[in-house]
Design a protein that fits this description.
Number of domains: 2
CATH class of the largest domain: Alpha Beta
Order of helices and strands: EHEHEHHEHEHHEEHEHEHEHHE
Shape: elongated
Structural class: alpha/beta
Helix content: 40-55%
Number of strands: 11
């Protein structure tokens, strides 16, 4: 079931200006964590005169057991649920509009039902989202190994970049961005994505090369490769850093980001699934799950 609630400020895609706006999808469960992520998304949308699509997913329906033959239909009437969800979304939207900071942002609200990560993926595909912004609290221990967080699953399946926003990450400002990369050819798209972001936020990029996966012969070759990638993508204000830590790449990335007072970590992801994900995992998902600052994951196609 899909309930779309359009306000009078919703754009009908009737002009060229609307067609070039960025569309940002924001899943919300009305928690303080997701509200923080929504504010971050609003900041981004304001910068690019973009559109925000607020999505609430009724996951209870997806997890509900099959009903017996003698069930009473009225007991499963979800009308009140959807009315309450619509009201919550309306209030979220009004809080942002009423703040006076996001006058140029267009809003759309959607209520869906199903598993969160698959619903987010489907809506992102159907509505051609350019970015997904969602809050994360992470997962630890056995829960992380066997189940993972919802944010991890969205990163693994999303058709577009995903910005994972930790609950206590504070105000969203971009002055320093850390970009861990393998410097393989498939990283070119991540460089281009960063260059597009840099057109809106004049940040410095600190490129971190770990463990020599591309097999360069010297540090000079590594620095030349970074420069070549950056120049081709139009990425400016780039500084190369090289780490030989082979023990724990995730820890190295997070430590480096903290050391450099980074505001954002940007990483490419191959979105491994199934047995490949079980055996090799995902450095990007793990980093997003454990980082104290936002992490932007960019799918590598």
């Amino acid at each position: 079931m899909r309930v779309i609630l359009r306000g009078r400020d919703a754009c009908d895609f009737c002009c060229i200006k609307c067609l070039v706006m960025k569309k940002i999808l924001v899943p919300t469960d009305f928690s303080s964590n997701s509200k923080h992520a929504l504010k971050v998304a609003a900041v981004l949308a304001e910068m690019v005169e973009g559109r925000l699509e607020l999505l609430h997913t009724n996951t209870a329906v997806a997890y509900a057991p099959p009903l017996p033959d003698y069930y009473v239909p009225e007991a499963y009437d979800m009308t009140e649920y959807y009315e309450n969800a619509a009201e919550e979304l309306f209030m979220l939207k009004n809080e942002l509009v009423g703040s006076g900071k996001f006058d140029d942002v267009k809003f759309e609200t959607v209520v869906e039902e199903g598993f969160l990560y698959s619903t987010v993926r489907r809506i992102a595909e159907e509505d051609r989202a350019d970015l997904i912004v969602m809050g994360t609290k992470g997962a630890t221990g056995a829960t992380e190994f066997f189940v993972g967080s919802n944010t991890e699953k969205v990163i693994r399946t999303a058709p577009c970049p995903v910005l994972a926003v930790p609950e206590n990450s504070g105000e969203f400002t971009l002055k320093t961005v850390v970009f861990p990369t393998t410097l393989r050819k498939d990283q070119a798209g991540v460089f281009r994505t960063l260059a597009e972001w840099q057109k809106q936020f004049s940040f410095e990029v600190k490129v971190l090369y770990l463990n020599n996966p591309a097999g360069f012969d010297s540090n000079e070759d590594i620095e030349k490769a970074i420069t070549a990638f950056a120049e081709e993508a139009g990425l400016k204000n780039v500084k190369p850093f090289i780490s030989g830590n082979t023990f724990n790449e995730e820890a190295s990335i997070l430590q480096f980001a903290g050391q450099e007072h980074a505001d954002l970590i940007v990483m490419g992801t191959h979105q491994r699934q199934g047995l490949s994900h079980l055996l090799f995992g995902s450095l990007t998902e793990d980093t997003a799950n454990h980082s104290d600052i936002p992490v932007l994951s960019v799918p590598i196609r």
